[in-house]
Every structure is written in structure tokens, then in C-alpha cells.
Amino acid sequence: MPETRKLKYDDAVLRILTPEDLDALEIGAGILGTGGGGNPYQGKLLALEAMKAGYEMKVLATDSIEADALCMSIGGIGAPVVGVERIREGREGLRCLRAMEELIRTPIDAIVCEEIGGSNAMNPLVTAALGGLPVLDCDGMGRAFPEMQMTTFSIYGHSSTPSVMCDLHGNAVIFSHAVSEVWHERMARACVVAQGGGAMLATAPMQAHYVHQYGIQKSYTKAIALGEAVIRARKAQEDPIAAVCALEGGRRIFNGKITDLKRHLRGGFAVGDMELAGFDDCIGQTANVAIQNEFLIFRRDGKVEVCVPDLIVLLDVDTGYPITTEMLRYGQRVAVIAIPCHELLRSARALDVVGPAAFGYRDITYLPLPAPVGTAA
Questions:
Q1: Rounded to two decimals, what is the model's pTM?
Q2: 324 CB burial (10 A radius; 0-12, 13-18, 19+)
Q3: Are 252 and 335 within 8 A, CB to CB?
Q4: Which residues are bridge partners to 288 per DSSP?
């Protein structure tokens, strides 16, 4: 094991998360996950167990760590439904961290969240807590996407190999080099299928100045604030869905009941689509949502209204709680909201990777929602 490096941040600027923060993060990460990222409730249970064992979950702003600090991005890989059917062992991320440090012969200074959506918001917190490190207040997507090359880190030039994948059986697989980010995704996806459909993957470390420039900033702060807004609204007997829209510049675009649902595993993804029949102000209308781990395309009466990379979110119409793809059921009454994505996902370079054509929808032109969140790169 490499020798411990001097801390490259001031302990005084750390935010130490509480169980109440995790409750809010569960909701907020579910919202930003747009259906994917894994079930945030199960991720929260692992985080709470680590807290009970005495581990601290520390979040640090990216501008509060030295520019040359070494930061490792980590997240779960596989189909979200597998996470419901097969509980993780809990130390897969720590094994990734230690294997990466052995591989590069240098200690890691901080952990970075690959995607803030779903359980993948919790995974870095657990890994960092077990490893005694902070998690930077950012992520590589500002939402969830189904493939690894779809992070802003990869889009803007970072090579994610060498990488380490660890499963609950104790296996560790090293990808020493991939000729492209897409090839890395293909090889890792094939490997995770062999491992049972779910694993943790840590990608090549980055320096903190790169993370600050190309990460989606304050994503943990945002996710926790979203969850707190839902909790406050429910306590005050106000509309939690309106609270979410107000905070994120989103809008409620459909009220519907799930009338048909097609969902199956294919190549390590949960893919399919669902049909909605409108009620309240949408009565007489129909809608369709295409799925690949996340909600990708929203159509009303056959016409595309919202598509990736903007966020399509399904919330329980009564509680305002997010519904992930693996929890969809026939007959559920949902509100569909649309939230503009971060500006880093709207460049021509980004749209080549996360726009509708990247998912096979070459006949759909991305038309951005108004009032985008964040600032240009």
C-alpha cells in the first residue's frame, strides 16, 4: 500500500453528512437519476450502516482542495433491476479504491461521484467513508446516463483507463487500456454481465483542477436541497411536485396512469418503454416514455416533447417521490416533469455522446428546454 499523502484540503471546510441529509439525498438523487442509477433507498441503507459503524461521510467543494490533488471517480455499473434482486456486499468500492492505489502506486486524495442519480449518489459516499476520504461536491453527469463514456469527464477529454471493476464475490478486474471510451464501456459491460449484472467501477484518477472545470458542480448540494424541498412541502401539506419544479426550473408536463409497460434486460441494460393514459388536465391524451436504464424520450400523442440530455422525471402523483425504472408498475399514477440539463451537456461535443442519436434515435433533433441550469464551460 502506498504511503499516506499529506491532506490537500482543510478539514474545516468539510460538510459532514447526517442521517437526515441521507434521507433528503435519497429523494433528490432519485429525482436527478431520471429513473436510473440504481435504487437510492438500498444505497441509503448501506450508507446508514457505515454511519452506524462510526464512519463519517464528508463532502468537499471542488475549489476547496488543492489543484493537483488526485481524485478517483467511482460508480455502480449494470442494470438497475439487478440491484433490487441482489443486494451488494458493501465493500466493492473500497476494494476498487485500494486496487487503484496499488495499480498507480499513489494514494488517492478524494473520491468523485460518477453520476449523482439514484444509488450512484450513495456509492461514492460509502467508498470514501470506508477509505477515510472526502467526496467532492460534484459529479460527471448532473443526472444519470446508462453508459460510462457519457460523463462530462470523458466527453471533454479524460481517458477513464486504467480502471478497476470489483463485484460482490471479491473479483477485481483491471482494464489497463482502451482505445476509446466507447470500447471501455463495451468491455466493462461484457464483464459486468459475466459478474451477474452489477458491480462497482473506478476510473482513472484525475487532478482536482480538471474535476473543477469539467464536473457538474454542487450536485450533492443540489440533490440534498431537492429532497429537503419535497420533505418540507409534504410536512406543510403543499405540492411537492411544484416545489421540485420551482427549485430546478422544471415544469410538470403530464399527469398519467401507466397502462402498459415493457421492460427487460439486454446487454447489461434495462430497456423498454411505457404507455401512459392522461388524467386531470391531460385527460384524453396519451404519452410514451422510452427507457434504457433511464427515461430517454417523452412523447405526447406520438410527438416528441422532451429528450436526452434534458431530464425526464417520474414522480408519484400524491407523494412527489421519484419512481425509478425498476419500481415502475402497471396502474401507477405519475406526474412527468421535465428539467433542463446542465450547460456542459448541451455543447455539440456533448450531444454527440449524450444526445438522442447516441441512443439510436437518429430521427430526433434535440431541442433544449428553456432556462438551463449552470453555466457554460
A1: 0.93
A2: buried
A3: yes
A4: 275, 299
